[in-house]
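User: Please fill in residues for this 423-position structure.
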């Protein structure tokens, strides 16, 4: 399937011919939510939550428990882990911790979240995205175990894995066990893309040395950071059953619960993996304030027809760009009519999120040099390096930029191998 690649970009099997890792260039599965049923031959796929709950959370009986979760922390019947733990025999649910957007998911991106009390259980809810980013010693001293159950999407800029690091650090300090109830990588665990996080660019949207699209489940990530950062957390990963790296979210038979307000479906999660970089361009809307965030890109000054033509002539795999007009209700250019493009993924297996985003940004800058302007610090934080912005400013082509990631991605694939739980 190397015909899906730009000629300058090698497949991973060329870099590591003896490894079991699948090619970087290929998204191995069918569509997002179109699968006829679970991908497992016996139909026995279960999330980490479903595995833990299958015997009534027996291993937690007699223990004081806290849970880090949001609306995605549900079972197949869409019952929240908060309610499941509150009703579990012998389990003392003492605290709920909410990440960005809050435990119930109501807060906007970047908005500070306050402490509260859970309406259905009366359990105190502590914010991990307000004045504190870590669980307090006071809260942890009441616990024996803290559970992390959140659907991540496999993109470095998503803040839930940064929260997981903070939880593991605080738990290790207070000698509290950490359980990660594992969930699928919605956009596939076989594909990695984008620049590596460079030293000095660490942040809450770049918490560890990963490529932009890293393909790790939360449990695998926890194993990696516990060892590489020497956290010393007493870590238990409750693995999924019937899952492999080839599976996408639609293969699981689960319904999609939005992990944040601007990721309403799985296709948006895939597109976000690259188009999140547009947030770092001050004069370009990433579609926030529309019904298609990250899939609509534009500005009042942009010639969308011309841009769509240029991008389609690149023949990027798995995607078509349609000239589009939209008027955001919030964020950049709120209330102004924008011209731009809508991103239509035509083949999820071959679509390369970060490549498409870099090609788009390069094309917009070349087409409208006077209007295009980076928000330099923001863009570099999202990219995890200053090298990407400088390469774009120097006029390098998207293919040259993508080829420059080759060694970093190859090294990462080798580095992550000991921490993988699914093959």
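Assistant: Residues filled in for all 423 positions:
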């Amino acid at each position: 399937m190397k015909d899906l690649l730009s000629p300058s970009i090698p497949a991973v099997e060329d870099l590591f011919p003896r490894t079991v890792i699948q090619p970087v260039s290929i998204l191995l599965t069918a569509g997002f939510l179109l699968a006829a049923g679970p991908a497992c031959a016996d139909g026995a796929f279960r999330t980490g939550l479903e595995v833990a709950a299958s015997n009534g959370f027996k291993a937690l009986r007699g223990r004081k428990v806290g849970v880090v979760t949001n609306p995605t922390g549900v079972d197949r019947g869409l019952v929240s882990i908060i309610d499941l733990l509150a009703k579990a025999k012998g389990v003392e649910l003492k605290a709920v911790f909410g990440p960005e957007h809050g435990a119930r998911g109501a807060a906007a991106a970047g908005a500070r979240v306050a402490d509260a009390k859970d309406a259905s259980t009366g359990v105190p809810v502590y914010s991990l995205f307000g004045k504190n980013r870590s669980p307090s010693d006071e809260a942890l001293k009441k616990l024996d175990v803290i559970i992390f159950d959140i659907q991540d999407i496999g993109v470095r800029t998503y803040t839930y894995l940064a929260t997981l690091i903070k939880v593991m650090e605080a738990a290790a300090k207070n000698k509290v066990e950490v359980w990660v109830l594992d969930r699928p990588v919605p956009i596939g665990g076989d594909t990695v893309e984008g620049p590596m996080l460079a030293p000095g660019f660490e942040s809450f949207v770049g918490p560890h040395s990963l490529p932009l699209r890293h393909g790790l489940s939360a449990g695998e990530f926890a194993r990696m950071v516990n060892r590489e950062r020497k956290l010393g957390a007493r870590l238990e990963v409750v693995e999924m059953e019937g899952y492999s790296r080839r599976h996408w979210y639609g293969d699981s038979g689960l319904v999609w619960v939005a992990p944040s307000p601007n990721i309403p479906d799985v296709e948006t999660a895939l597109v976000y993996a690259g188009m999140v970089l547009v947030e770092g361009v001050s004069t370009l809307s990433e579609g926030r304030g529309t019904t298609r965030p990250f899939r609509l890109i534009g500005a009042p000054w942009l010639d969308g027809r011309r841009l769509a033509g240029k991008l389609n002539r690149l023949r990027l795999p798995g995607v078509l760009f349609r000239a589009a007009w939209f008027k955001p209700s919030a964020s950049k250019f709120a209330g102004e009519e924008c011209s731009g493009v809508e991103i239509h993924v035509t083949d999820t297996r071959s679509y390369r999120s970060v490549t498409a985003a870099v090609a788009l940004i390069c094309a917009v800058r070349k087409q409208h040099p006077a209007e295009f302007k980076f928000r330099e610090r923001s863009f570099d934080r999202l990219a995890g390096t200053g090298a990407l912005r400088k390469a774009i400013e120097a006029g390098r082509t998207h293919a040259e930029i993508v080829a420059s990631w080759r060694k970093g991605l190859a090294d990462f694939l080798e580095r992550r191998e000991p921490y993988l739980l699914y093959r």
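For context: Residues 266-410 form a domain with the Aspartate Aminotransferase, domain 1 fold (CATH 3.90.1150.140).
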